[in-house]
Structures are given as C-alpha cells and as structure tokens.
Automatic annotation (TrEMBL):
Domain Peptidase S1, residue spans: 41-283
GO molecular function, one term: serine-type endopeptidase activity
InterPro entries tied to this protein: Peptidase_S1_PA (IPR009003), Peptidase_S1_PA_chymotrypsin (IPR043504), Peptidase_S1A (IPR001314), Trypsin_dom (IPR001254), TRYPSIN_HIS (IPR018114), TRYPSIN_SER (IPR033116)
Signal peptide: 1-25
SMART domains: Tryp_SPc
Protein name: Serine protease 27
Keywords attached to this entry: Disulfide bond, Hydrolase, Protease, Serine protease, Signal
C-alpha cells in the first residue's frame, strides 16, 4: 500500500509561489525567444508559417513601410527613422502574426498604436540612436504565431562571425518589390566586427565624400561581396541570434549604402547600447543575460 507523505513546508511555499496571481508578471522571460512553430531581404528565402513570431509589419494608411519586433504584450521595437511624425498615431497600425502581407490569414491580428517613443538622441539617417518603441493600444494575446523576442542585457556579446538572422518584407533589390502575396523573407548573416566594417565602408568611396562611420551603438552584419542584404521596407526589423537556446535580438535594421552592394554590409543599431533607455520606457521588461553560443 502506497504511503501518503505530508507536504513539506518547502513544497507548500513552492506551490504558493506558482499559484500566486502576481506571478504572471514573470512569464515574459520564459515565453520570449522560443518559436513554437517549427516545420527587405536580398538573396533571402521564404519564412515558414510561425517561424519568426515576433516579426511585425508597421503600416501607415494601410501600407507596409517598416518592420519591427514584438518585445512584450504591448510594446514593439523598431527604428526611429520610420517615424517622421510620432503624434499622428491614428495613421499607424501594426500587423502581428502574419507571414504574407496581402493575405495575412487567420493567425494574424491588427493592433492600433497608442504612442511612439523615439530615442531623443536620434539625429537623422545613419546617425546613432535610431531606435523607437511603439506602444500598442491594448495588450495582445500570445499564440503560436505571436510571441515576443528576448531583449539582451549588456552582458550578452554578439561575437564576430556569429551567424544571425534578419527578417522582413522589404524589396528583394534596389529596383524591385516582393511579388504578391509578399511573403516574409529570412536571411542568415554573419556579424562583422566594427573595424572591418569601417574599412569596407571607406573603400570605393566617391571622391569628395566622407565615408560613413560605424558608431559605437551600431553593429554590422552581412557579406563583403554583397548580393545578400536587408533592403528598403525592412527598416526597423530585427536581427536575431540564437543565444543559450533562446532567440535574442542583437540589432535593429537601420541603414546601409544601397542594398547588397559590394563592401557595403547592413548596419544595425546595437540593442544592448540602448538597454537603459528601453528599460526606462518599459520598466517591467525583463532582459536576457548570458554568453553567446553561435547557432
């Protein structure tokens, strides 16, 4: 006959903590960065349904113009240069859970925008601090197709040659647009260290032009030979890396000279550089720590 052991005080405490209503606030670190569905991109390939559940389309007057990433139930991370007018929030909406722009499908939802917070240090295209936060009018419900990506704290190092992924609905080249129904594109890109990236951007510059500098809060990723890159319409979208079995956002698509040109890799805003600003706007946001394990 099986004996029934009385629960120990430690077990009772654990049960209390797990069942306490307030514990739900701690869910995000567990939920973020884990894709549940597993089955502007030049040289990329079609993403699968639910493969990048944090990817969003930011739309103005019903048309896609920038990408972004869901980081909590109510906040999206994107680029400041996407918003010249942050007060006209009624013009904007965010599409979540979609793979195709023109036929988003039953798993997708549209969310209204409550406010846009652009980093006050941003000073125009190709400048530092090209980062913005978009607050949705109401929290979204997480599903297999709508999940947040994890935010890294400053202890996370994204090393040179680490393979990461960039996603978006941008143009496949400087001249062309994605054919209908405009399927989300994904592209694997290696991290390029800043000295090498500065060297690439200083080669083949037109005479009389000052080469663009890669600032401290920027990150380069891509290929010196060109041919594969983010492009127009991808701006604000995420560069994500697999860190300790979790997808963590390393960068925000910011700028580049043309698309997929030789010696002109994509330039991203480094998310860890703006940890304090993001935390100030969203105090409840949990950040992922730890060392990288390239994937």
């Amino acid at each position: 006959m099986r004996r029934h052991l009385a629960p120990t005080p430690l077990l009772l405490l654990l049960l209390f903590l797990l069942l306490r209503p307030g514990i739900q606030g701690a869910k995000v670190p567990v939920v973020c960065g884990h894709r549940r569905m597993l089955n502007r991109m030049v040289g990329g390939q079609d993403a699968k349904e639910g493969e990048w559940p944090w990817q969003v389309s930011i739309q103005r007057n019903g048309s896609h113009f920038c990408g972004g990433s869901l980081i909590t139930e109510q906040w999206v991370l994107t680029a400041a240069h996407c918003f010249s007018n942050t007060s006209e929030t009624s013009l904007y909406r965010v599409l979540l859970g979609a793979r195709q722009l023109l036929q988003p499908g039953a798993h997708s939802i549209y969310a209204r925008v409550k406010r846009v917070e652009s980093n006050p240090l941003y000073q125009g295209m190709a400048s530092s601090a090209d980062v913005a936060l978009v607050e949705l009018e109401a929290p979204v419900t997480f599903t297999n197709y709508i999940l947040p990506v994890c935010m890294p704290d400053p202890s996370v190092i994204f090393g040179t040659d680490m393979k990461c992924w960039v996603t978006g609905w941008g143009s496949p080249s400087e001249q062309d647009h994605l054919p209908s129904p405009r399927i989300l594109q994904k592209l694997a890109v290696p991290i390029i260290d800043t000295p090498k990236c500065n060297l690439l951007y200083s080669t083949d510059t037109e005479s009389g032009f000052q080469p663009k500098a890669i600032k401290d809060d920027m990150l380069c990723a891509g290929f010196a030979e060109g041919k594969k890159d983010a492009c127009k319409g991808d701006s604000g979208g995420p560069l994500v890396c697999f860190v300790n079995q979790t997808w963590v956002q390393a960068g925000i698509i910011s700028w580049g000279e043309g698309c997929a040109r030789r010696n002109r890799p994509g330039v991203y805003i480094r998310v860890t550089s703006h940890h304090n600003w993001i935390h100030r706007i969203i105090p409840e946001l949990k950040f992922q720590s730890g060392r990288t394990d390239g994937h």
